[in-house]
From TrEMBL:
Family recorded in the similarity comment: Belongs to the short-chain fatty acyl-CoA assimilation regulator (ScfR) family.
Species of the source: Acetobacter ghanensis
PROSITE patterns, alphabetized: HTH_CROC1
Molecular function terms, GO-annotated: DNA binding; DNA-binding transcription factor activity
Name used for this protein in its record: ImmA/IrrE family metallo-endopeptidase
GO CC field: cytosol
Pfam families the record matches: HTH_3, Peptidase_M78, ScfRs
CDD domains: HTH_XRE
Domain HTH cro/C1-type: 14-68
InterPro entries hit by this protein: Cro/C1-type_HTH, HTH_RamB, IrrE_HExxH, Lambda_DNA-bd_dom_sf, ScfR_C, TransReg_Diox_bact_type
Entry keyword set: DNA-binding, Transcription, Transcription regulation
Amino acid sequence: MARTKTKLFAGNRLRQLRQREGMTQAALAECVGISLSYLNQLERNHRPLPDHLLQSLCERFAVGTSWFSDTREAHAVQALRETMADPVFKTAPLSLVQMAEAARHSPELCEAFLTLYRAYTFDQERRSHAPSANTPPLEPYEAVGNWVQDHNNYFHELDCAAESFYEHLFSDDVPLATALAQHLQDRHGLSITHSTALQARGLVWRIDRHKHQIQLPHNQPPESTLFFLAQIIGQLEHNRLMTDILRKEGPKDRNAQELARVYLGNYFAGALILPYARFLHTAETLRYDVDELRRHFEVSFEQVCHRLSTMQRVGAEGIPFYFLKLDIAGNILKSFSANRFSQARFGGPCPLWNVFRAFATPGQIQVQLSQTTDDSIYLNVARTVGREGLSYADRPRQIAMVLGCTIADATKTVYAAGLNLEDHTLVVPIGPGCRACGREQCSHRSLPVSGRALDTGSNARGVVPYRALPEH
């Protein structure tokens, strides 16, 4: 059965684009050849945005189709669902339809509400556990995560600078790591040495300016050395560009700014070792086969996955992937999404997600079709990453990651081979974490839905020993 195309309501984003260009409704309507009343209906979300007009707007304003996607609204709805699950809202519950309408029509108000809720929970925590605490309601890593998400995990100026550096340095005859090391020697007078003491000090690299050396661990894999050399070049030669980005549009909190600077340094390194145009062309040619890509570019599985989540250059977009990295306890270490997917903000992720099965099969790829509670279906590719133990006493961190795209993009990847994408019988239902997940009959549920009245029943007992009464 053919899937029905979802209507695109993009009034808020259309209005933002028009106002950004300083245009009146009449001017924009004339520019794209539609009536003023029709444009007014589009901006009020009374009419969906048709494909032909979407393309005209993208060409006129030099933006990608992702500008008009409902990704931000989907993430906002997920945040609202988890927030409204708090028992404090049980006297004024909102339906999923009402939350979706709020995210679509009043995104600024939704963000203000979520900020207020974070302040409320922070105050409750402060009163209960730490009367003298002065931590801001939004943690620095959350502020950076939101900032990166707002940019679709793509920073054009930095990406182009890294790509330009690569093209200037590239040679078929010299490995990239060798070329980077030679560049650091020639331009900065820094030679590469290997130290056995760095690991004990918790360092992955160190610049000793007195000795004119870059110290690296003696036992790290080549792909790590490549990435760290790219990091160092970014810090030495593109620090001003990163500072300009942060000054213009970065987070305002000082700690968040410092974390954002680290992120930009990592972003530059990833963009240097996997330059945009070359990487996208190869990814499309190899149908996004991560193992083939890592061998082709001589990088790690994680580096490829992370780079795939950033391919959102206007006019040359790759598949919009989400990318998450987490440890065996379910702690999320990295999270980026260029599509509608949004992970839980409170509590652990859903145990039905294939990223947890990856821990049972180290080094092997797990492929899964999953359906989230908003009925979106994703193709998920998960695998463990990380190093082996160096000694009996060593305790390497157990980490897995998952890369996911919508089922509409799945056919562009090698991972759809052998799957019947039209048959949803074996699609795994996953949720945003038990606290906010409304699936009643899930035998993997670990706690009741928050904010809903419970009925344990007296004449029968189900797979789950409690059920939430219907919302009114």
